[in-house]
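Folded chain entry
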Amino acid sequence: MRVLVDTPIWSLALRRTPKDLSPAQAGLKTSLAELTTEDRVEILGAVRQELLSGIREEAQFENVRKHLRDFDDVDLIAEDYEEAARVANRCRASGVAGSAVDFLICAVALRRGWEIFTTDHDFERYAKYAGIALFQSE
């Protein structure tokens, strides 16, 4: 199964030094490496942008950009954005707010039958109303 990787996971893997990672975070980084080896990783252009935004040092920006170039952005179509709006409406009607990018991640994964790999706990709330599957690292 394909896995759509969210910004916090990429950030752990590409923006943090190994010595700054907790054992749990190091395990998440290992899971991402395994998914990459298995050619199961997917990324959205919006996630790429989020990850690269806010990097102050040009050398780090280029390093992260270079690593991400190994992954093609998912091609989005009108139905992805329409489903994102549907998911957002469903969640908001149940009192769950979120960002447009989060709902787009949900919609893309939902429409394609993919799992989402994230540490963002908001996705646990979205899952109750959107029917998304979250990747569980081992």
The helical segments are 7-14, 23-37, 45-52, 58-68, 78-93, 100-112, 122-130. Residues 3-68 form one domain. The two ends are 15 Å apart (CA to CA). The chain has two domains: 3-68, 78-134.
